[in-house]
Amino acid sequence: MTARADLDAALRRATETGAVPGVVAMATDGKQTIYQGAFGERALGGGVAMTPDTVFWIASMTKAITAAACMQLVEQGRLGLDDDMGRLLPALAAPRVLEGMGGAGKPILRPANGPITLRQLLTHTAGFVYDMWNPKMLAYVKHTGLPRVATFQKPEDCLPLAFDPGAAWEYGVNIDWVGKALEAVTGQTLDAYLQQHIFAPLGMASSGFKLRPEVSARLGGMHQRHPDGHLEPIAYDPPQQPDSFLGGGGLYSTAGDYLRFVLMMLNGGALDGARLLKPETVALMGQNHIGDIDVGAMRTEQPMLSNDAEFFPGMPKKWGLSFLINTQDVPGGRAAGSLCWAGLRNTYYWIDPKRRIGGTIMTQILPFADRTVLDLYDAFERGVYRLAS
Q1: Are 328 and 315 a contacting pair, CB within 8 Å?
Q2: Minimal CA–CA distance to 40: which of 385, 386, 382, 376?
Q3: What is the pTM for the complete model shown?
Q4: pLDDT tens string for the chain (389 positions)?
Q5: Is 63 a catalytic residue?
Q6: CATH architecture, domain defined by 3-75+185-388
Q7: Sequence ranges of the domains in the chain
């Protein structure tokens, strides 16, 4: 069998065995799409075939797009990576650190020992975390009862930090605040800015925070994997208000649209005559910005939403300006210095500047870091490098 046929067979087999309901995967060599495959059903038992233009909720794959938009403002001198974000966003002017919950269930808070910078927000070192991977913050969120979107609307409702700015790495809501900084600087909503400055120039016509009718008609169904391994279709409620846009998650897109973004990054910030970023900006985004700090594992506090998650266990990992960076070559796959991340419902992408390969694989399954999908992702990546060799 050819490398392309092997890829088709691996993805098709995953759907035919019921391991995943449906999957779309695409890859590029920096010039063109070198692989495209869509297999299975959009929704389990729905009878509608998965197609390359199926629309997925890409969740935290939103982060890289928000970061790229923010870096446009950095290039223009309208934002600085080491700016105190409290001067722009009142909610961040006097950050507090959550030490824990007192005996009466009241949060124990103290002032943070320094300001929050844009660089810290982009690298998840500012101290903001997600409650699904942090027990202290989960207890705090249960105490306040505030939905996450509400914590960005009034300064007094801002979530506290889990540690002092710059002291550690922990994945969190940081890039939601990057989106709020962009809105404050531009006077536009994040949705409007992305449509004008990212999606339109790249031809990402199916991407956005709002589900237009022609996009909604191609939406993939959501699924829950239960502890015994079986999959169940589940209802999906949009995670935020229609007019509230969070830079850390919430976008809808297709594999083909996202591959356009990957291509732009592989080509130093330009694609098909449209320049979004300078080459030196793209290079800067791919550098280690957390120094001696290492990216750690994410231990779940909500098993229905996420498994424990750690990419490349045993390998030191760093963080760029919104990307995870592997510090060693992956046998049969990406080179050291590649960039990647993922979305909660098991959508994944990688960008390999050294070997000029990038790809994305998309499903709609909870919990995150699904072992079956991760194995399929690994097989897909290896197959892509064989195809490109």
Answers
A1: yes
A2: 376
A3: 0.97
A4: 698 999 999 999 999 999 999 999 999 999 999 999 999 999 999 999 999 999 999 999 999 999 999 999 999 999 999 999 999 999 999 999 999 998 888 999 999 999 999 999 999 999 999 999 999 999 999 999 988 888 998 999 999 999 999 999 999 999 999 999 999 999 999 999 999 999 999 999 999 999 888 988 999 999 999 999 999 999 886 555 666 899 999 999 999 999 999 999 999 999 999 999 999 999 999 999 999 999 999 999 999 999 999 999 999 999 999 999 999 999 999 999 999 999 999 999 999 999 999 999 999 999 999 999 999 999 999 999 999 98
A5: yes
A6: 3-Layer(aba) Sandwich (3.40)
A7: 3-75+185-388, 85-184
Active-site pick, 130, 140, 171, 252: 171
Is 60 one of the annotated active-site residues of the chain?
yes
Candidate list 35, 60, 258, 338, residue with the active-site label: 60
**Is 180 noted as a catalytic residue in this protein?**
no
Residue type at position 147:
P
Residues 6 or more apart in contact with residue 151 via CB below 8 angstroms:
157, 158, 159, 173
**CB 214 within 8 Å of CB 254:** no
